[in-house]
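Cont'd.
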Amino acid sequence: MRAGTTVEQMVKAIADMIVTGTMQPGEKLDEFSLAARFQVSRTPVREALRELGAMGLVERQPNRSAVVTNVSGGYLSSMFEAMAELERVCARLAAGRMTVAERRALELSHHASMRLVRDGAEEDYAAYNVEFHTRLYNGAHNDHVFELVTQTRARLSPFRRAQFRLPGRLSKSYSEHQDIVTAILRGDGEAAGKAAYAHVSIVSDASTVFAAD
Amino acid sequence: MRAGTTVEQMVKAIADMIVTGTMQPGEKLDEFSLAARFQVSRTPVREALRELGAMGLVERQPNRSAVVTNVSGGYLSSMFEAMAELERVCARLAAGRMTVAERRALELSHHASMRLVRDGAEEDYAAYNVEFHTRLYNGAHNDHVFELVTQTRARLSPFRRAQFRLPGRLSKSYSEHQDIVTAILRGDGEAAGKAAYAHVSIVSDASTVFAAD
DNA sequence: GGGAATGCATCTGTATGCAGATCGAGGAAA
DNA sequence: TTTCCTCGATCTGCATACAGATGCATTCCC
């Protein structure tokens, strides 16, 4: 077994190219080319493609090349809505379950992000934003919900890259985070859920601009 | 290509054996035996197993046989909780979105199920129950939520087989369905969601009896 | 007798070859 | 010129072959 790359590594690598936009929706994934690129035979490439298909990142049809998933407008909005609902669930659960340490870390990290907003550091804020939401997902203390929300987020990622380029988006996002944090700190699950839902829904509206099918 | 079975057919067949309990959690899935059983070579079997792994129905480790997923007690309860939350979302959305025809069909089919309860027809009621919940999932008119809830349900199915054997479970389930239907018919999303959550949570409690890890 | 080492049977992971399907270019007919 | 057909290049789906990993039972040493 002198494989250049394992199936798991290929899955990661290809998934990464898709979610980072290196590969565009609709792009074909030719088994032979991928095999050459990763220095393996077609067999492991096929297995990787099948797994990516199950993850929803590529679409497969019999005797056709796999293509990077290009979800329809309708399905895309259903994913955004689902994302908002999942965030609501996470925030609500988190408000009742986060440990003292988790709450403190959420608060501190949120406060620190104010500086990024003031400096207009979009890249850094985007990274922080991922961290903020991940804190919520973890704070819910429900592994399966975490899996569902992570999976949905991964599939949405190709469609929300330009999000924070919108004017005023940073400070708006910050104040929405503020609402969520406040509700969580006082243990108000319903309010936290509502704020989280609103936060993600707004992102959704903005994103539809980029989501022409 | 004189394959006896396609990969897709194998995925379905094996998934079916898992969710119907023909294969128990923990059971090994030997590639060679499966290849012999389905009259194909190991290559398509491997692809099927990888897809089942991505679906969460089997677990795979390097150089080990795939085994039917046997989730830990903690993860199992997180799945039941997630299921309840998803049902809540579906019911809430369905209350506001179901078409007139869908509402009528839900009501009629629910009423008809009373007969199954009276006769103690457990098998038939279980089938009806799947139908009832599927109506909710569809009624939410959100394809991605449908996908998430279906996937979670599939992964839970090996752990809820004996559910309706519990004494008095049928009539209790019926009256809980009644609550959901009533709320949906009058368009009360919050009440429908609450009732659906309660319904599934109760199932969860009952099921933990069978879910020793 | 108990525990560690070893060899064999078995299984997984990947490469390669072949059959069938698909797609597109080029030519023939209208 | 347009449309349809054909043929070949290309690609997918699967079978087979082989190398490496694993597990178990036997054996050896203490």
